[in-house]
Every structure is written in C-alpha cells, then in structure tokens.
Amino acid sequence: MSTNQPDTKSPWNSITGPNLGYVMEMYELYQESPELIDPEFAELFKQYGPPAEQPAVQTGDATGATASAAVEPNRFEKVLAAVHLAEAIRAHGHLASDIYPLKDQPRDTERLEISKYGLTEADLKDVPVSLILENAPAEVKNGLDAINYLKSLYTDKIAYEFAHVIQLQERSWIQSKIEAGDMKPKLDADKKKQVLDLLTRVEGFEKFVHRTFVGQKRFSIEGVDSLVVLMDELVRMSESAGTENIMIGMAHRGRLNVLTHILHKPYEMMFAGFAHVGDEAFLPEDGSLEITKGWFGDVKYHMGATHSSKAGTKIKLAYNPSHLEVVSPIVTGQTRAAQEMADKSGLASQDPNKAYSILVHGDAAFPGQGIVTETLNFSRIKGYQTGGSIHIIANNLIGFTTEQHDSRSTHYSSDPAKGFEVPVLHVNADDPEAVLAVARLAFEYREKFGKDILIDLIGYRRYGHNEMDEPLVTNPMMYHGVHQHDSVRELYGKQLANESVLSEDEVKKLDTDVQKMMQEAYDKVKENKSDDHPKVEMPEAVLNGFPEIETGVARDALEKMNHELLSWPQDFSAFGKLARILKRREEPFKGKGKIDWAHAETLAFGAILQEGNPIRLTGQDAQRGTFAHRHLVLHDEKNGNELVPLHHISDSKASFVVYNSPLSEASILGFEYGYNVENDKALVIWEAQYGDFANMAQVMFDQFISSGRAKWGQKSGLVMLLPHGYEGQGPEHSSARLERHLQMAGENNWTVANLSSAANYFHILRRQAKMLGEEAIRPLIIVSPKSLLRHPLVGAEVDQLAEGKFETIIEQPGMGQDEKKVKRLLFASGKMAIDLAERVKDGKGYEWAHIVRVEQLYPFPAEKIKAIVDRYPNAKELAWVQEEPQNMGSWTFADPYLRELADGKEVKYYGRMKRQSPAEGDGEAHKVEQARIIDEALAKSK
After folding, report:
1. Which residues contact 605 (CB under 8 A, 6 or more apart)?
2. CA nearest 929: which of 907, 908, 913, 909?
3. What is the Cα–Cα distance from 839 to 931, expressed in whole angstroms?
4. Would you tell me the crossing angle of helices 189-212 and 432-449 to the nearest 10 degrees?
5. pTM
C-alpha cells in the first residue's frame, strides 16, 4: 500500500494522547534514520504511513462540542513540538517546582518555556487536547489549556521523578495518578482540623521542651514537622489495609517527636527523661506501649518502642545509635522476619502485606553513607526483598554545618535511589496537604507493585545541629532565612482561617490548649520526682552464663537423617564428582572415616530443624561454602534445577533457607541481626567469605551485636562464622581479627569460640539453638576454619555427636599423662592447636609438656584451666601459642587470665612478634615463621 493512501484500518486509529505523540516522534526519526527505530515500527510506517494522515478522531467535551484529534500535514512539526513540551513538563517539571520552603533555590523553567519549542500560545490552542493529555478534565479545552494544566500538576508543591523506572506499567500508573488530579485531593474540614491539631502538638512539644529544659539536646524536628503528618497518614492507611507490623528506622533528629506522636509514648514519659527521673509510673496500663531497657542504658534520642494500635497494627521504632543510616538494613531484616512463616519444613513462606518498613533518612547521609545503596540493593533480591520499603528523606538541606554543595555531587540528595528504579516524590514540607497526598501515593504504589518508593520531604532545620549550636556562625545566609520564616503550623493555621475552616482565635486556642496539656503532664512528673533512680539490673541468666545443656542426638536418628540427606530423587542428576564426595558421608556410620566439619554442620542443622527452630544461613557463596565444603544446595547438572536435601528430612518442624548474599557485609550482617531480633526462635547465621571481611561490618559488631543488650535490652542469638587460619594466603585472608571481638567482650555479651573439633562445632550450634528465645541467649562468634575443614584431626566419630556435648577446653590426647613430668603447659586454639597436635602426634618424646585447646575464648574457661594447672604441680611455665602477631589474636586477652591462674609460674608467649599487618605476604615466608613458632613452643627447656 502506498504511504500516500491511508488505510482506514490503520493501527494509528486507536492511538491517542501521549502514545500518539510518541508514534509521531518515531515517524520523524523513521524519516531521518529508519535503521534506528524498531523494525516493527518501520514496517508499519511503510505500510500505513504517518499518523498525521489518519482520519479525524472526534473527542467530546463536557458541553458536547467536538474537537478533531487529526493532525494536518503542515501542522505536524508544531504538534510534535507540543508533544515534546508536554513530555518535558513530565520529565523536568521537578526542576521548576515550588518544593523549597525557604525559596532559596533557583527554579529552572527553561525546559518548560513554549518559545524554546518554537511554539506560541496560538499554536498550542490549535493542538487537540487528546494528543497531549488523556482523560482531560472538563475545563481543559485545547492544547494550551492542557499544557498549563500539566504545569500546574508537575511544578507545584510536589515534584516527580519516575522516568528512570523501566516498567511502563509503573510509569503509566504514576502518571495517571498525577494527571487525574489525585495528587490534589480535596480535604474536608474535619481532616484539615485533624492535620492542624497534629501539627500543633508536634510544634508544641518542641516549644515546651525548648522552654522547660533549656540547653538539653533533643535534635528537634522543627522545619520538617510534616514528617509526623506523613507518618501518621501511613499508619492510618496501614491500619485500614490490615497491616500487622510497621517497622520504622530513623536517626536521632525528630525521633522524640515520632516516639510521642506516632508511637504514642506519653508526654509524661518523655518529660521524665528530660527531668532525669524514672518513667515507669507513666507507662500506659493497657499494654499498648512496650519499651525495653538495658542495664547500662543509652541517651533518650536513641531509644525505640513498640505501640499496638486499637486496629491491631504494631508500630515499631528500632533502637538506633547516632551512626547514620546503619539501622536501615536492620529494620529491613526485622521486616522480612515479620513477613515470614517459618514453622513448616522447606522454604519459609512470605507475605509482604503483613509488614513493611518506613526508613527515614537524613539528606546529607542518604548520598553520603554507602550502606544506603547496599540496603536499596535488597529490594528485588530473593533472600532479602520485603515487597518494598517506603523511604523518607527528612531533608533539612544541611548536614551538621555542611551545606549541599559540600556534601554531595548529585542535584538532589535522593538521586542514588534512581539507580534502583525507585520513584522519587519531592514535596514541600510547608504544605501538609501535599504531604498527605504523597503519603497516599507511596502506600498505594508499594501495595500495587511491591517495590521501594522514596519521599523527599524538603524543609529546613529551625535550630543548629543541636539546640545549643548557633548556626549563624557557619551558615548565616540560610539561617537569616530560617529566622524570618513562619513554621508550618503557623502557615497552615492562617490557611485554615482564610478558608473559614477555623477562626484565628480557634487556631490560637489550639496552641494554648496544647501548651496547657503539656504543662499538666510535666506537673505530674514533678509530683513523682524522687531521689531514687530505678536501676535496671543485668538479668541473672546473663550474669550466670549458659547452663549445661544436653546437645547429643541419638545415633539411630543421626543415621536415618544422614541416609535421607543422601537419598536424592531418581530424576535428579547431581554433578558426578560432588555426588561421589557427598556419598562418602555414609562411611562414618559404617565405622570408616570421620565426620568432617561440613558434615557435622549439616547434621546439626537437621537436628535443630527437627526440634522446631527455623534456620536462616546467608553469606557470600554460603550455599556451596567459600571453600567448596558445604553444598547445602545441589544443582542438577542437566537442567540446573536445585535440590535442598534439608527440605526432605523426616520430622522437620521448621523452615530452612540458605542464600548467597550480595557482595556486601555491613548491610547483610545488619539485616541478619534485625531478622534474629524480630524472630528470636530462628537460628540466624551469617558467614563471612573470609573472616577479615567482617571489617566491613564493624559498625554492626560495635553498635548493635556486642552492646545492644546492655544499651536497650535487645536480645540476639545471631551466629557469625568468620573463617580464620594462617595458611600463607597473605594479610587479607588469614585473620578474622579475633582481637577486636575479644576486646569488646564483657558482661557475657557474646560467646567467642575458636574451634578445633567438628564435634564441638556440632554441639555449639545445637547449644545455641536450644538457648534461642531464652533470657540467657547471646550472639555467637565462631572463628571457623579453612584448611581444617577436611583435616582428619578435626573430624568426629559418630558417637561424639550422639553422646558428647560442647567442650570449652579439650586436652590433647596422649599428652600430660605423667603429671609429675610435665614442666610446660601450652594453651592454643583453632588451627594452631591442630598444628601442634600434628607435630606431637601421640605425645611420645613430649612427656614434659601438655597441650590444652581452648575452644571457647569468651567467656574464658578459667575454672577448668585452673583445675588443669593444679593437676601439674611441677609445671614451671604456662605458655600461650598463637599464629597471629603478639598485638593481635587472643594473647592480650588471655594473658591476664593466665597470670591470675599461674600461681607464681612463668607466663610466656609463643607466636609472631608485634606487627602492623596480620600476616606475611609471601607463602614461603609464612611457612618458615609458622615452623619457628612450633619449634620454639615445643623446644624442651634446658
């Protein structure tokens, strides 16, 4: 068909609005370079010609008048320019939007000027509305009206960025919401009064604290007061949707106000904290508020709480130190745990509608802290996704004293989110009605698409970084503007008075009433003030440590489970070499060989599942294991199908999952910590690819795992496997930096073990699982092996798993039998203990020495070691032997214990000298040094 003869059955007949504009744009490109467009489009243009040649499409307006949607050939360029203008408004309107309360940022309107597109108002009036806007409201009569209408939507108090979202369905949904006018809702008078009342309480709380507790830090919310309005609306929508849990993570700024008005912590409790008196007397009697406390405590703006609403929704604000953004992966992990049902065999089932997270970020921290993008990366990864988080940047336009141009390279602080296809809604915090609109859109988007969305709530900061700072010293221009700017409550109060929703007197009375209410609350605190300060004591169970626990599993049960683990479906083709290796796991039950580390681990997992504790294991390459030892997930070599043998053992009462994690540490460890805090019955394990990779997660060890119980009363039984051992691989893959974990050890805060026995590994995992949910539970750090994974001296007999228990120390077999001859007691752990064992073999020729493997380094087994020391009256020397340099490893931790136990005996150290780097970079140099240490430790005294 000739391109000059339009076909009345042309596909262009059914295309209108922006879609028709897109086709027109493609036709223009087709005329210039046909090879650049989709071949299907090119064929359609060749057959049917351009959309400009199609018959008129009649569209009716509210008056019954019709307008032609056809395009005259000589008007093609003008129409195309109008379409380009409309798309520019959609894509770049955010640059011209009124989103800055202080009006101190330039509004870039250049891309939206009609003259830039070679258009006049008259040109636009001739353009059919349907080519620019679908489902236009009645008042939009022509193309000019349509352009102005789009400008009113895209350049007002809300700005939108969603062109980076790949899925057309998502973009179309957001666009339709905007262009249908849904983002300019009409609030009734009651809702407006409700919003003003909340803003009055938010501001009133800050004003009262500022006036009553002069100079005390509170990290005020003032300037982004609408954050509470936004979160309150999210809570209301969540309650209506039947959401069971809302998990909130945020830093310190605004936290006290969120605790007060979102978690409903009574004013009396808040003021008691400022007055340094006990707040327990003011805890709601109905049980709607839960607060945990540690015995050492923390500042009030790091504390969290859980509120149970009357609608049945639990709102949880996570405890969090001042380390900005590190709480985000923790809250995400808590959310995943709250979504999952883990009480059945197989994979845990997940319902993303049961819970979701609200993550509140700082504007300087969002692009500045890498853990933000680590957490965003979780959004669509199988083992970590939660069906979307709602992110909020509480945007003060400043970080401490640092202004935007010094804190980021991006235009907006929100820009890092765009790489993850997260839609961004910028909103002026001085317009609470616009804030409500973005809250609703964000909630609906998350429900519909199961993806993250970000709200950039743009305000300012009323005071300095804290209320004692004078911001004019460092940021004079900004703060001259702040000091002249009315608060959002004042602005909204004037608006409602102008709208005759309330009178000016009624607006003032609201403020007066709120201040009166707060004064009455504080008066109650003063009446209850006492010199007695309630002290939270360390729980006795924590103080006493783990009790003796039976962890053995009957031999018959182990053998049956082992058989089931190796009985794969007939149509499953495991990789041949691996299948042969795994089938060898039958031999220990036939009296041949021993159970190695990974085999013991799998049997421990199976027994734990049979007792009803779910297991979640994650880490880089955790399914296979870094050292190709684990293989908990098998892959069919013919079709790639996966088989998880632990899903097919009998009598399993809980779920088992093992995920290969993204290549990050801090966010992953934080996620797993959060998961375990929320599901305290789950055995949650994180394995570092190499132990030194824990360096990248140090903040999680420091701020949460080691100290969360003492600060906040937050229990965790998280297990961390940190591969460790000096095998000549250089500084980066030798040491798990054991010294750091031991340095933080105190008050029975965690268990640190460096094991040399697969049986001991089996039993320590079983012991940890049995203590989950108990008062005495604490995290477990296992300095796990590398070369020892398959070492015969580490392997276990079946009876050791069936009848044994976890041993905090193991005496070297064959040594120390003649107690009078022993002159030197050698203490070692992990690989060094096995290196010594290889040298002494059965002990012949070493009657003068005895070797003790210290399997549990913390809590240090001092009593058991003392009993051994007392057994050898002629011993003159206690010696600690280690691979690590003298200033690293466990020596500096063990030294004072040994000196206390020595009773006059000499205490010595055998190991590397003090170094700045953990290990030699050359494998041969390593061998020489390792041999020297063993030679010296086993050299008989003259």
Report:
1. 615, 632, 646, 656, 765
2. 913
3. 10
4. 110
5. 0.91
